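Section: protein folds

Sequence with per-residue tokens
===
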Amino acid sequence: MDGVTSDNPPGTAGLSALRPQLPSPLVEAADERFARRGLRLLLKRDDLIHPDLPGNKWRKLEPNLRAAAAAGADTLVTFGGAYSNHLRATAAAGRLLGFRTVGVVRGDELADRPLNPSLARCAADGMRLRFVDRGTYRRKAEPEVAAALAPADAFVIPEGGSNAAAARGCTLLGRELRGIADVVAVACGTGGTLAGLAAGLAGSGRVIGFPVLKGGFLGEEILRLQQEAFAGRQGEWSLDERFHCGGYAKTSPELESFAADFESRHGLPLERLYVAKMLYGLTTLAEEGAFAPGTTLAAVVTGTP
């Protein structure tokens, strides 16, 4: 893949060299837990879009990377927790396209610990990690705090990559599933993927989002993103808050058992923080009788382990 150097600023030509696999594959998963209720389960393999920028990370980052290139920026600044897939994808994009990257990481206590595999991958891809205390992190959008965290000439991408541009980028996911799935399931962190997915379906199906954080705040954030991106609520969508397993980066024995069983049934390794929680929720809903016989369900596989 053709990267760029400091003598050849990042540009949209570099983005085309990434060669994403779009539309992402859609495969049927034969599973008696769904079949016995007359349901069809499809897996939307967004994890196969790109080896370094899989799933919704590509869909959300691509429009932001184009905007950064158009603005002539050579540095990307973004935010995330210690296990953030978004930080990892942004670092990879920087390596591939020649952007310098800075990751502002929630939790200053992490600076004194060995890097976990996610942050180690970020560092290996050239990302400069800046650890901040949790109070400062919560105030990252305030002008004075933002100015202290990001160089004036940097292009700032929000936590999770979720902004209006990202939501518009995720409409393609909805268009790829339009007329195929009656119900689409997706894991939600910051809500940008669901915001665009629901808009892209354009009334052709409904979306169920499974938040991976607890707190009950995500609905308002999705509405805000849709207002900014589309001037109002778009599509039919809802959230099921029962499957966060204690919060972000947390799992439970029940989730681990479900994930191991699903992997055995389908030969698909499951990323635990997002994908496993979504599939656990969708399977539970199916077993609860939440879907009418004849319903086609599509589960979006947004990332890899």
The longest strand covers residues 100-106. The chain has two domains: 12-51+163-300, 57-160. Residues 57-160 form a domain with the Rossmann fold fold (CATH 3.40.50.1100). The beta strands are 26-28, 40-44, 75-80, 100-106, 128-132, 155-156, 183-188, 206-211, 236-239, 296-300.
